[in-house]
Amino acid sequence: MTAASMPTMSDFWARVQATNPFTVNRVSALAHDLVDVDAIHLKASERLVALATEACAERRGLGVVLWGEAGIGKSHVLARLARWASIDRHACLVSVHNLQANPDNLPRALLHCILSVLTRGRTEGFAETYLFRLVNSALRTALGDPDGAYSWKQVERAYQELVDRLCDTRAGQAAIVDRAVYDVLFRFYYAARQARDSGLDEHPARSAVRWLAGDYLDAGDARLLGLTPGQEAVALADNQQIKQVLVALTQLAQCRGQPFVLCFDQVDNLDTEQAAALSRFLEALLDSSPNLLVVTAGVQATLLSWRQVKVIQDSAWDRLTQFEIALQRISPAQGADLILARQRQFLEAYRELDEVQVRLRQDAFFPLGSRWCEQFLRDKIELRPRDVFSAAREAWYRLRDSSRVSTTSDGEPSEVLSVVPLTPAEQLNAVDEHVAQRLSESRSHLVTDPLRLPGSAEHMIGLIKALLQQCQQLNLANWQVEIPLARGKNRPHYDLMVRPRSDVEAESLHVGLAFLSTGSAMATTTRLRGMLQDRNIPEHVWIITEERSPLALGNKGEEYLAKLSRNRKCEFRVIELPFAAYADLDSLQAVVLQARAGDLELPAVGGKPLALSEREVMESFARQSRYQSAAILRDLLALQRVKASRVPAQG
Amino acid sequence: MPARRVIADELDERLLQILAAHRLSNTTRPLTVRRLGELAGAPASLLGKALNKAAFRARGLVVRQKDPEAPVGLQADSEDLAKSPAVLEYLLQTCRTASTQAFSVSQLKAKATSKFQKQLQAAIQLQIERNELPASVGWIMIARSKKLFLIADMRMGGAATRPTSHEPLGRETTPAPDRALSFDEAFAAMDRQSGGHNFVSLAELRRAFPVTREVFDAKLREVRTSGRYSLSAAEGRHGLRAEEQEAGIMEEGTLLLYLSRRDP
């Protein structure tokens, strides 16, 4: 390092002022750059790795529950598992966040999420995806000598023989092996490979991914994949077929010698109906999958109470919690290690500075200082990692504040100031600031990694429903939100109905929302035709799509859309959500769910951490007009205001 | 005594401040009158007087008069109080006897202070309609009337056992041992009884290891300090009973309620 680029102590203190190494006190992404103290929760981490290895080696489906209180390190342990999975490709791991779909649609939303991760959300260049590598591994296994030269016919024959062997592996196995799924996987591989090697069109691969993810296909696309189209668009029929796709993926991972790991963090923030549906589906999946580890993580008290009141049926419970791993509080000495680890990372850039080295020799906890550390840890019997980070973060802020009061020539603070309790008004401001910070973090994670936010209609329906209900709970709106029942085998015309509450006068909101996040023009046409034929068409019909999957329209669809636009009985809109707006909506719900899971704590307000409730978060949103400025909600709330203004005043 | 009067004069305002702070600190479970008094450092005799003062009655709300176990809150929060699982559980506990353990909403509301009854009735009815009753409470139709009961009072057939984390007050479930159980034995017994998840509520453990609170807490500190056991917070979305709130240990602003053995 040259003298010119060498940082100085002034730079060091300036960085102390500008940043805080303890700001992040929770793992909200399966980060690969974790600041880690390996000894903390080491056994839990090792056990998870051992179980994943066992699932693959023994060709079994295993369920493990990772539980403990909020802030104890569950997400951190899962992040470690993800890091292990990615190093040397130990495992195929998919982490599922914030499932929002309605209970009936949860399996499809889950499948969509998994396929999205395995293909990195790509719409081209599929040969670079993990899904491609999975099929490739199966083919190598099928061929025996993968280095030989084979015609596509030979490759396909070997693959079919492999599928035959999979059917023969266990008695009754044929029932859970769906050849159509394997055929589509092969066609996906073929198309992706041809596109890579010969520059051919990847459309069949794209269609295969959509079908495997549970989306609808038009007849022509279905034929490309060897599927038999009927009158309607083609899709995986039911949860059984969805399960069969997942079983096939675990089989392919087996050929690759990798366990397939599904991680569900913060399951305790699901609604009870969602938890019930998810547990039933995962139980069936575990029973059928030969190479699967399902990790569910959550607060132990909530999960046990769900079992007690049968939200999770006994058989599903036994399957999902076949193994229990509990995380417990850490010792004060481990707390000190955490502080050192975070500071060590912060100091990395200044390690060469003589003065830093001297100060570290004098006080290992520089710059926070041993005195603060000893004072904080004194008399503590055990504590949560989050408590350590929260306290250290506040101490760091005080260190910065004190430097504004009194500093040396280098900008070094003279002493750490003491805590000043907040007034109620300041406390509300602190809540708003903290909620805003969490929203910003959540949004930033989604923007950085859009795969975390599935573009599936199922997710959008659940998300918008939850947010509309929050507006109702806060009396921002007088509506009630319903999910219309399916008409026989057909989907209802609308996914959500916003109606006036029964106790509200007639001049009120009546909106049908349809979420059309499909690439199938045929499926879109069917929905639009249904709306046109609806004798009780709502006053407002809004079709909502997301920018990553805009409305797919054929000739008929265009025609129906035009007719709907001209329909005088209703106001018709097509809303294409920009990803940023969708991320904003999802972040609102994500922060509410963090509060529900007890995972949203305002650090050291008046000296004590303050856990924020769902209600407080929602009230903060309302104070900050976040509902009123969010896409869709903004329009619905405005619409209701217009309606309400038309109601004549009583008396 | 002048000094005593000064304390009493200030006490009603102090109680209201504590209730406001409790609300701000987001403890969804309301305080009991007894706990409120403890937090204010008020003797029972002064507490009763302070609760009856006009200033307190204008802003405070005691769910049932003259009961130290009654939940208490601010009138401004009466809506939340009416919806609170703790209040419903308290009313059921108050109504229940050895021979009658299911009650209509009207019977339950009758136990509450009159100015709170209407709001309470509406809140419970709504919870029933929306299927939002707390997990600890169920209802059954008897003679065309919906009767609510504590899940813990339910008896199940076969090998099933009733839930153990919610024992009605005043009843012992652990058979009296021939000799006093050690702390470890009491923990093991309670752990077995609650499913073997290494997660025992202090409320149950205090019953199974019946010593004074001071002795119990000292023992608890000892087994934690020696690294044999670990406490965790009273979290979860199912709410807390008054007994659990009382049984927990307050540490750094967090109520610790569940005890687990540490791995050797």
What does this structure look like?
The complex is a heterodimer of chains A (651) and B (264). Chain A is α/β, with parallel strands linked by helices and 651 residues long. Helices cover 52% and strands 10% of the residues of chain A. In chain A, α14 crosses α17, α19 crosses α22 and α20 (521-533) packs parallel to α21 (555-566). The longest helix of chain A has 25 residues, at 424-448. Chain A is globular, with a radius of gyration of 28 Å. The mean pLDDT of chain A is 86. Chain B has 264 residues and is α+β, with helices and mostly antiparallel strands. Chain B has helices spanning 2-24, 33-40, 44-52, 54-59, 78-83, 85-95, 105-109, 114-129, 183-193, 202-208, 213-225, 242-247; strands at residues 31-32, 60-62, 71-74, 102-103, 137-142, 145-150, 200-201, 229-233, 249-251, 254-261. In chain B, the strands form three sheets. In chain B, strands 7, 8, 9 and 10 form a four-stranded antiparallel β-sheet that branches. In chain B, strands 1-3-2 form a three-stranded antiparallel β-sheet. Chain B has a three-stranded antiparallel β-sheet with strand order 4-6-5. In chain B, a hairpin with an 8-residue loop joins β2 and β3. Chain B starts with a helix and ends with a strand. The model of chain B is unreliable at 1-6 and 158-178 (pLDDT under 50). The A-B interface holds A 43, 68-70, 72, 268, 299-302, 304-305, 307-309, 324, 326, 328-329, 331, 381-383, 387, 424, 427, 596, 598, 607-613, 616 and B 20, 24-26, 28, 135, 151, 163, 165, 195, 197-199, 221, 224-225, 227, 230-238, 252-254, 258, 260, 262-263.
